[in-house]
Amino acid sequence: MTEAEPLGHAERIDRTRARAWALQIHYRWESASFDGTLRDALVDTTATRRVSPRRLPYIRRLLSSMEENLSEIDAYLRAALDNWRLERLGTMDRAVLRIGAVEIFYFDDVPPKVSIQEAIRLAEAYGGPDSPRFVNGVLDALFKVHREQAK
Q: Which of 13, 46, 75, 123 could form a cystine bridge with 135, CB 3.0-4.6 A?
């Protein structure tokens, strides 16, 4: 893994907001009334909501990586969940965990600790009262797995 170049303030803000959009699109995708892929959910969302063009590349990157690697991501998450089943988690918590896991395992340009911190922020904004601590614990366990695999 190579050391990523630091992002400028505007790019950090764009990525933070792109993660929030990815979370909303994931929510739409998992809702009972939506029938289609994550890409379809993105197209559907951008048809009715204005998303900054600067954020779309990172949203697409997150969602396509999630879709391509969903079974592996979910396997990592299942292994890290003590006494929980992934399917029983709330939609928002599951989405936040998946976004964090995608960045930890597939995005070498995002430091894992940044991914965890950003996921905690999403959990604070969109999850329940216990979500931030829960997300932190699960993603920290994934980070340790990732670090071991990188050795």
A: 123
